[in-house]
Amino acid sequence: MSEIARALISVSDKSGLNELATFLSQNSVEILSTGGTASALAKDGFKVIEVSEYTGSPEMLDGRVKTLHPKIHAGILHKRSQADHLAQMATMGWPGIDLVAVNLYPFERVTANPETTFEEAIENIDIGGPCLLRASAKNHPHVAVLCDPSDYPLFISEMKRNEGRLGERFRRQLAQKVFARTSAYDKAIAQYLEKRLAATP
Question: Among 22, 61, 74, 174, which is least packed, fewest CB within 10 Å?
């Protein structure tokens, strides 16, 4: 598998996680992960590197800061076709991240429950997830991005069919889906806050 050597997986919805991790492991892809996802992968016998170990920075502030680190985002955002980007990465000793599989904290589901407190709603606003998704989608010519577990089988099929490579159109489709998802997510948060404001005397 020439295109993907390293993947970052951090998911709230763990549907299809085992199948994705199995495929990646069978193809010698290094898996980075965080928190509950890393624990789930390790429990199922997958070799996984915690992001905190990878970056050398511990998770902070009750998990609010995990993946917001330059080693992670440079690994995603650098252009593999641009010599100065590659030189900067080499100087730092930072490798690339070629696949990002992330889905977001379930803000919509949590706030659909009328018993949810405002504080619980706020804690379910994902910060690192949208940053990872948007960075990956921006750099989709070089980084594959999965924001929906229903796309895992399509990704696996595409990789198998093309001997470990992803077509430009497929990458762009995945990127478009990311921006549609993050847009809808932000809209849901804005609408929730708007309703709360309207209900506040």
Answer: 61
